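Researcher: I'd like a candidate sequence for this fold, 301 residues long. If you have to choose between options at a position, lean toward the conservative one.
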């Protein structure tokens, strides 16, 4: 085949690869927002002490993947150069081998070790992220509902209730979203429940999320490490207005957090919003599970 027929194909192939790479880069940037950098693998900037576990797993997984990629690409290029067709070749095929036992063992065992290592470190990070054995300083019952959130601050015995976001494009509309307050430097345990269907509690800046299921109590803990206002959302398709199931997360100093709780008391928002507000009404199984989760946290405090 002449070079005049192969060159356009090669150019089109290179162009397609470049287009895919560019689109991937653009979509990645738009997905994670502006608070990203190469040092954390272009993840959103983590704002909890636990987020470093996710960052390390993500970065070193990419390092391992790139190392394997470089090795494979290097071997491919080496074969292309070392075994290229030369002018003095007589056109006969090279020696054909039926099998090579050492080589077959190598490319069977090495991938198994790689998958095993990835599984080990992923399981290790996941176990630490889902560990709720430590005593929390603050317990918050996060309740998902179509299409907003309620927040029960258990120890303070106060609550905040949210309504579906009305995002009409006007600047500042996000200020009307329900806001979850967290104290910086204190271990917070989230007790997740749902009033109706499956939701998912996701704060991108935490670098972790967890499902919110009806009839099931899920829990995880974080320790906020920096102040600021961040976005939260539902990450599970839960109905027509899923995209508007948004909330704010405000991490503040402990004194400001206590002042916020006092403000809820002053507004008369005392007591915890119960499961009697669930779509199906009171469910004894749900009540028992939630009571057990909250009672355990109160006893440890």
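Model: Candidate sequence:
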């Amino acid at each position: 085949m002449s070079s005049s027929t192969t060159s356009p194909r090669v150019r089109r192939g290179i162009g397609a690869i470049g287009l895919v790479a560019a689109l991937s880069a653009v979509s990645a940037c738009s997905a994670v927002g502006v608070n990203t950098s190469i040092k954390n693998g272009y993840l959103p900037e983590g704002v909890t002490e636990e987020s470093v576990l996710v960052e390390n797993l993500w970065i070193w997984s990419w390092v391992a993947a790139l190392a394997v990629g470089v090795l494979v690409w290097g071997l491919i290029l080496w074969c292309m150069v070392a075994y290229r067709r030369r002018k003095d070749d007589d056109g006969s095929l090279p020696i054909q081998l039926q099998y090579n036992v050492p080589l077959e063992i190598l490319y069977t065992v090495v991938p198994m070790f790689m998958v095993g290592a990835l599984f080990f470190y992923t399981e290790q990070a996941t176990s630490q992220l889902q560990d709720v054995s430590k005593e929390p300083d603050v317990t918050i019952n996060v309740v998902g509902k179509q299409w907003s959130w309620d927040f029960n601050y258990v120890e303070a015995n106060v609550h905040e209730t949210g309504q579906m976001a009305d995002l009409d494009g006007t600047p500042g509309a996000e200020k009307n979203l329900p806001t979850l307050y967290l104290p910086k430097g204190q271990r917070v345990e989230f007790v997740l429940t749902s009033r109706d269907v499956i939701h998912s509690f996701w704060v991108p800046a935490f670098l972790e999320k967890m499902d919110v299921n009806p009839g099931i109590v899920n829990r995880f803990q974080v320790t906020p490490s920096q102040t600021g206002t961040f976005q939260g959302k539902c990450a599970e398709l839960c109905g027509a207005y899923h995209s508007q199931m948004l909330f704010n997360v405000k991490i503040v100093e402990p004194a400001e957090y206590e002042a916020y709780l006092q403000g809820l008391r002053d507004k008369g928002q005392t007591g915890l919003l119960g499961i009697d507000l669930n779509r199906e009404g009171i469910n004894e199984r749900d009540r028992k599970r939630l009571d057990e989760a909250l009672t355990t946290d109160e006893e440890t405090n």
